[in-house]
DNA sequence: TCCTATCGTGCAAGCGCTTGCAGCTCACCT
DNA sequence: AGGTGAGCTGCAAGCGCTTGCACGATAGGA
């Protein structure tokens, strides 16, 4: 492996100059800089991360915690985070918490003095612990806001306003909400906002449902018994399961039941049936989280935590329509696009 | 942060002794060792990874490449890998290749002198490049075997023997195979083995299908047109989509079509309908890959590459039965469990 | 023309840990 | 009793990079 010295010797300068040419462009003359860069390039020089980490105190690593990798919702978030990290010359260590606060804290503990920052999607730990952790290490929470901790939140609760209005306008008065993991900061807010958006409707919340297909099939019975005319699910995977069970029973969307969900995975390359959903900027959220983390790491001074909120947009599709009254009667009122049964 | 010196001073020994007490238990006397350990514990000493990496030349990091995080098939594999890495005191850097050989090589290049080893699930790069990479850095391929590179393979092709026999015994003579990504080492072999296991049946292969729900819905038409009585999909996500579309059309499994897939995700905590599948030991594969990687890293000598194959077992479930002749006729021959239509 | 900023570069001291080597202390053997 | 080896421990030299400081050169002002 070529080292700094090799480049220095070859370019006829000292190692310090090479180091500066590579990282502090303004500190060396243009002439030497270009010569050094060319030499480095020619010799295929790559800095030794450990040596740099030892000298600077920065590891060039970031930790990124998610509850599960089996949930495709996280895929674009991680992809965005990874891209941002790569651009900044850092690597991402993705860790899985299984949604357990204990495991989350254990992982933080384990990684705290090995990485330059820690990001967590929907962390389960109590707010006080998170705030404490943030004092020790750059910390960013995604989809959860905690006093004293920088955060990036995809505003699906805010999206409930539009979605609720949409359903209300269609005439739905009884809506089922299929909720996410217990104690989810975001999920509580989604439900609250949905209720606020549909003050005249009855919202029957059930859950918690894990973000799995089968949870949706199980949810069907509760939904069917509730007499609701529309369903809002926090996860499209759950909704897919529900849709499947419905279809099994000979019911269709939107004829028999209107369907909507709070995350649109088609943006993640995961096409799914034509379901009304919220467009969630997952990749952007991941990217912003990493950028914030790097900001925090750069200015070792804690500073005031920044909270960012990413808006979502409603994607009205074929799975929602005015409440119907029986199987297979999806077609009504001439709106062909909207009334086409969902597959 | 407490350093080695702090512990040394506190314990009344030199830093070298502390270092040895911590990593080379046999080299210090029992008395000093326990004293040092207790002191380290009391002061909350944790070694500085960068310093250790610089001194030893080992980074304590492993790279793990997968094509996509949106594919839940990878979740247990990564989980197993992570667990093994954690036990060994290493961290895992999970990277996403999007199935592109170019990105794969770029990532390898980028990480090669930053990690102690590189594992790749179903790598897309040509065999020669992989062999070359293996000469440079400990490398393990999963679900692909390459001459000169250690590998761990989940033997789904082998599982096709049992699955084929199962279908043949039920009387299926026309079977559709829904194949995976183009150029997949494993997928080619699965198809070959399925054909070998059902020499008297006609196997209609189609694809490539990405591992997504919607790919399954698209696949339905091809399957329906083919006149097959059974479907074998490489991915359960694809099969889920197919099942959904079938149901939409009023068809049921196994009455109208028997269904089976090559990966069983219920082991990954992802319950899905009662589909005949192969139990795939994903977590074990991930774990073994990491252990092999660490072996290779320890014995800097390349040694002979080791190839491990993990067997799969057939999980016959309700989605396969003797070929039927019409919708809703799933119930036959008194086998209630087997004949229950799949939901 | 001499003095003083300014700019560019090199020197050398680390960053915290590991490890070859040397030295010391005993126990054991002859 | 002296010699010898084994068993522990400490010394010090790095691992490859960054960076404060000093120094020399150059340009500008007086």
Automatic annotation (TrEMBL), chains A, B:
Keywords: DNA-binding, Transcription, Transcription regulation. The keyword Transcription regulation applies. CDD domains: HTH_LacI, PBP1_LacI_sugar_binding-like. It holds the Pfam family Peripla_BP_3. Transmembrane segments: none annotated. InterPro entries: HTH_LacI, LacI/GalR-like_sensor, Lambda_DNA-bd_dom_sf, Peripla_BP_I. GO terms for molecular function: DNA binding. PROSITE patterns: HTH_LACI_1, HTH_LACI_2. SMART domains: HTH_LACI. This is LacI family DNA-binding transcriptional regulator.
